[in-house]
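Mods, move this if it's the wrong board.
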Amino acid sequence: MSQAATPAAPAKKLSVIEMFMAGAKKGFYIGVEQILPAMILGYVLVEFLTLTGLVDLLGKLFGPVLAVFGLPGEAVVVLIAAFFAKASGAAAGLNMYNAGQLSAAQATVCIMPSMLMGTLVGHYARIVLVADANPKYRGLLLVIPLIDSALGMLIVRILLTVMGVWTVA
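Not the wrong board. C-alpha coordinates:
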Protein backbone atom coordinates (compact mmCIF):
# COMPACT_ATOMS: atom_id res chain seq x y z
CA MET A 1 0.00 0.00 0.00
CA SER A 2 1.61 3.17 -1.06
CA GLN A 3 0.41 6.55 -0.13
CA ALA A 4 0.49 9.29 -2.67
CA ALA A 5 2.73 12.11 -1.61
CA THR A 6 0.71 14.92 -0.24
CA PRO A 7 1.57 18.25 -1.77
CA ALA A 8 3.52 20.51 0.51
CA ALA A 9 1.71 23.48 1.89
CA PRO A 10 2.63 26.65 0.07
CA ALA A 11 5.36 28.59 1.83
CA LYS A 12 4.15 31.55 3.81
CA LYS A 13 4.88 34.71 1.89
CA LEU A 14 6.98 37.04 3.99
CA SER A 15 6.24 40.71 4.22
CA VAL A 16 8.85 43.27 3.23
CA ILE A 17 9.53 43.99 6.90
CA GLU A 18 10.01 40.28 7.68
CA MET A 19 12.39 39.88 4.73
CA PHE A 20 14.33 42.97 5.81
CA MET A 21 14.61 41.72 9.40
CA ALA A 22 15.73 38.25 8.24
CA GLY A 23 18.38 39.82 5.99
CA ALA A 24 19.54 42.18 8.75
CA LYS A 25 19.83 39.25 11.18
CA LYS A 26 21.80 37.21 8.66
CA GLY A 27 24.08 40.17 7.91
CA PHE A 28 24.66 40.78 11.61
CA TYR A 29 25.70 37.18 12.19
CA ILE A 30 28.02 37.20 9.16
CA GLY A 31 29.65 40.32 10.55
CA VAL A 32 30.03 38.92 14.06
CA GLU A 33 31.03 35.40 13.11
CA GLN A 34 33.23 36.00 10.07
CA ILE A 35 34.23 39.62 9.49
CA LEU A 36 34.89 40.78 13.05
CA PRO A 37 37.29 37.93 13.95
CA ALA A 38 39.36 38.59 10.81
CA MET A 39 39.48 42.31 11.61
CA ILE A 40 40.59 41.62 15.16
CA LEU A 41 43.23 39.15 13.96
CA GLY A 42 44.62 41.75 11.53
CA TYR A 43 44.68 44.43 14.22
CA VAL A 44 46.32 42.17 16.80
CA LEU A 45 48.94 41.08 14.28
CA VAL A 46 49.81 44.70 13.44
CA GLU A 47 50.06 45.58 17.13
CA PHE A 48 52.25 42.53 17.75
CA LEU A 49 54.58 43.50 14.90
CA THR A 50 54.74 47.08 16.17
CA LEU A 51 55.35 46.20 19.83
CA THR A 52 58.04 43.64 19.05
CA GLY A 53 59.91 45.94 16.69
CA LEU A 54 59.39 43.59 13.78
CA VAL A 55 57.84 46.43 11.77
CA ASP A 56 61.28 48.03 11.49
CA LEU A 57 62.82 44.76 10.32
CA LEU A 58 60.02 44.16 7.81
CA GLY A 59 60.31 47.80 6.70
CA LYS A 60 63.95 47.31 5.80
CA LEU A 61 63.22 44.01 4.10
CA PHE A 62 60.27 45.27 2.00
CA GLY A 63 61.51 48.85 1.54
CA PRO A 64 62.96 48.33 -1.95
CA VAL A 65 59.79 46.59 -3.19
CA LEU A 66 57.38 49.14 -1.73
CA ALA A 67 59.52 52.02 -3.01
CA VAL A 68 58.25 51.11 -6.48
CA PHE A 69 54.83 52.25 -5.27
CA GLY A 70 56.25 55.30 -3.48
CA LEU A 71 55.70 53.76 -0.07
CA PRO A 72 58.04 53.36 2.88
CA GLY A 73 58.91 49.77 3.79
CA GLU A 74 56.87 50.04 6.99
CA ALA A 75 53.72 50.24 4.85
CA VAL A 76 54.01 46.45 4.59
CA VAL A 77 51.95 46.49 7.80
CA VAL A 78 48.99 47.71 5.76
CA LEU A 79 49.43 44.82 3.32
CA ILE A 80 49.69 42.28 6.12
CA ALA A 81 46.60 43.63 7.86
CA ALA A 82 44.66 43.76 4.58
CA PHE A 83 45.56 40.14 3.93
CA PHE A 84 43.31 39.23 6.87
CA ALA A 85 40.58 41.89 6.56
CA LYS A 86 39.90 44.86 4.32
CA ALA A 87 38.93 47.02 7.28
CA SER A 88 42.13 46.11 9.14
CA GLY A 89 44.23 47.18 6.17
CA ALA A 90 42.34 50.45 5.82
CA ALA A 91 42.62 51.07 9.57
CA ALA A 92 46.36 50.33 9.54
CA GLY A 93 46.81 52.83 6.71
CA LEU A 94 44.80 55.44 8.59
CA ASN A 95 46.78 54.85 11.78
CA MET A 96 50.05 55.26 9.87
CA TYR A 97 48.73 58.47 8.30
CA ASN A 98 47.64 59.81 11.70
CA ALA A 99 51.07 58.94 13.15
CA GLY A 100 52.77 60.84 10.32
CA GLN A 101 54.31 57.68 8.84
CA LEU A 102 52.38 58.06 5.55
CA SER A 103 51.40 61.12 3.56
CA ALA A 104 47.81 61.47 2.41
CA ALA A 105 48.85 60.35 -1.09
CA GLN A 106 50.66 57.30 0.28
CA ALA A 107 47.66 56.39 2.44
CA THR A 108 45.51 56.66 -0.69
CA VAL A 109 47.81 54.22 -2.50
CA CYS A 110 47.49 51.84 0.47
CA ILE A 111 43.72 51.68 0.02
CA MET A 112 44.16 49.67 -3.19
CA PRO A 113 45.57 46.49 -1.63
CA SER A 114 43.11 46.80 1.22
CA MET A 115 40.24 46.67 -1.26
CA LEU A 116 41.66 44.44 -4.01
CA MET A 117 43.28 41.72 -1.94
CA GLY A 118 41.61 42.43 1.38
CA THR A 119 40.47 39.39 3.34
CA LEU A 120 42.36 37.16 0.91
CA VAL A 121 42.89 34.44 3.50
CA GLY A 122 39.21 34.21 4.37
CA HIS A 123 37.96 34.47 0.80
CA TYR A 124 40.43 31.86 -0.37
CA ALA A 125 39.34 29.43 2.33
CA ARG A 126 35.60 30.10 1.95
CA ILE A 127 35.48 30.20 -1.83
CA VAL A 128 38.39 28.33 -3.40
CA LEU A 129 38.73 25.51 -0.90
CA VAL A 130 35.05 25.03 -0.05
CA ALA A 131 34.11 25.13 -3.73
CA ASP A 132 36.85 22.55 -4.31
CA ALA A 133 38.39 24.52 -7.17
CA ASN A 134 40.71 22.53 -9.37
CA PRO A 135 43.99 22.23 -7.39
CA LYS A 136 45.88 23.03 -10.57
CA TYR A 137 44.48 26.60 -10.47
CA ARG A 138 44.51 27.28 -6.72
CA GLY A 139 47.91 28.98 -6.76
CA LEU A 140 46.78 31.21 -9.59
CA LEU A 141 43.59 32.09 -7.73
CA LEU A 142 45.74 33.16 -4.78
CA VAL A 143 48.19 35.21 -6.86
CA ILE A 144 45.70 37.11 -9.04
CA PRO A 145 44.50 39.44 -6.22
CA LEU A 146 48.14 40.20 -5.37
CA ILE A 147 48.85 41.17 -8.99
CA ASP A 148 45.64 43.24 -9.07
CA SER A 149 46.77 45.05 -5.91
CA ALA A 150 50.19 45.85 -7.32
CA LEU A 151 48.68 47.17 -10.56
CA GLY A 152 46.11 49.16 -8.60
CA MET A 153 48.79 50.78 -6.44
CA LEU A 154 50.79 51.74 -9.52
CA ILE A 155 47.73 53.18 -11.26
CA VAL A 156 46.77 55.24 -8.20
CA ARG A 157 50.31 56.55 -7.85
CA ILE A 158 50.34 57.55 -11.54
CA LEU A 159 46.92 59.22 -11.24
CA LEU A 160 47.98 61.15 -8.14
CA THR A 161 51.15 62.25 -9.92
CA VAL A 162 49.22 63.42 -12.99
CA MET A 163 46.76 65.27 -10.72
CA GLY A 164 49.67 66.98 -8.99
CA VAL A 165 48.79 65.45 -5.63
CA TRP A 166 51.81 63.16 -5.40
CA THR A 167 54.83 64.90 -3.99
CA VAL A 168 58.17 63.28 -3.38
CA ALA A 169 59.36 63.92 0.16
